[in-house]
Input
Amino acid sequence: MINHKTLIQDMSKTDFYPHSIQGSIQVLQTHISYIFLTGEYAYKLKKPVDMGFLDFSTLEKRRYYCQQELALNRPIAPEIYLDVLPITQEEETLELDGKGEIVDYVVKMRQFPQAALFSEMEKGGKLTESLLAQLGKRVAKFHQETKTNDYIGEFGQPEKIERAIENNYKQTEKYVGSVQDQKQFLETKAFTDRFFQDYNALLKKRVNDHFIRECHGDLHLKNICYWRDKIQLFDRIEFNEPFRFVDVMYDVAFTIMDLEFRKRQELATVFLNNYLEQTGDWEGVQLLPLYLTRQAYVRGKVNSLMLDDPNIAQEEKQKAQEKAKQYYHLAWQYTQPQQGELWMMSGLSGSGKTTVAREIAKQKRAIHLRSDAVRKHLAGIDPEAVGNEDIYRPEMTEKTYERLLEIGSLLASKGWNVILDAKYDRQLMREAVITEAKRHHLSLQIIYCTAPMEILLDRVAKRQGDISDATPNLLAQQQANAEPFTETEEAYVTTIDTRKSIEAQF
Output
């Protein structure tokens, strides 16, 4: 049996590889693997460890999980994942893909620049709202295409999720009092225990509605890159089915949590709202507090486990300890109760409602509900497809506004800030929102967006790449049908002239 330290030393040498090397070998390390960067290619070597939630302790298991990693990641990142290769030994010489005795296996990948990682782009200030909007749509498409079946669905049963979260607490009990505060630990655990009681029916409904799918399982910024002019998801979890057979909101929560850990709340909001607009899964937002807490806690656990690894330098352990504390605290923060607020947008097409709503959403960590998206999901068509006249008939418009308020009221009553983005040009529609806000004791603002008619016409005519189907010839009719605010409504209204700076008026 080969000594693992010897193997790492040999793989760190340029002459180990049967191809040219650019510079020296760079070695990256996680709690479960080593990655050797050679220039054109990267090689991942799994550590011979058994951590309970994963077992790479034998050669056969490492071979199996290398092949699993390739099979699971090639469909979502075919340009990155290339092959599984054996490491062989002949006498005292170790060789990559040689003819001697097989002593280990590696996953061979195409190396991309580390600067292409979303985590590195965020550090360098290059992670833009546009990229996060694209990521929301990319993850939505991935979730819509990835498989589900009865076997996968069973992993979404509440008792199985609860058991997995309980295991996280058991595996980290020894760090209570050193890496995390006991009061914080107990309150975090009490929240998740209570969540399973309160949301048992919804969790079961998610199974029946096929939201438990073969997801990514570890969708944080270090596992997302922008390379070759496209967003690529990689390092999908191969070693543990319960980590991969999960609710789609589990994946979404990992990305949101990582962005919020990095104090990029506004980017997290852009990502979430673009994902929801594409999938229409607004009810799933109710589960985010559970999964946000879980993901932050797991990152705390991962960093805690590094403290027990003798192969990790003391300086790295100190960094891991500090990160673990921060993650555990974030997990606790997600358990704290929030008071939801409502915003109702109002104005003609082209008045800038959606632009203003997006700004409010970023500031307030709000769910942005667009009537255009709600209408198309009700009609069963892709949000980016052009709708026919049937979906704009009065009865469909009524259903759209009812659904908009239903979702908005549900989420706001659960503590989320929600923006209802529609024309809201009729008193009856506005009155329904005011009544619902009063019923749930929710703060409400009406944001009325205005601009001269010639500007509205120009904006609508030039609109591209948006899900709205409004055309300039509709504006005169909208203007004629719009009903003025009543005296009661005026108390809620803030008027925004969208020719001017939004920040100065709001």
Observations:
- Residues 314-333 form the longest helix (20 residues).
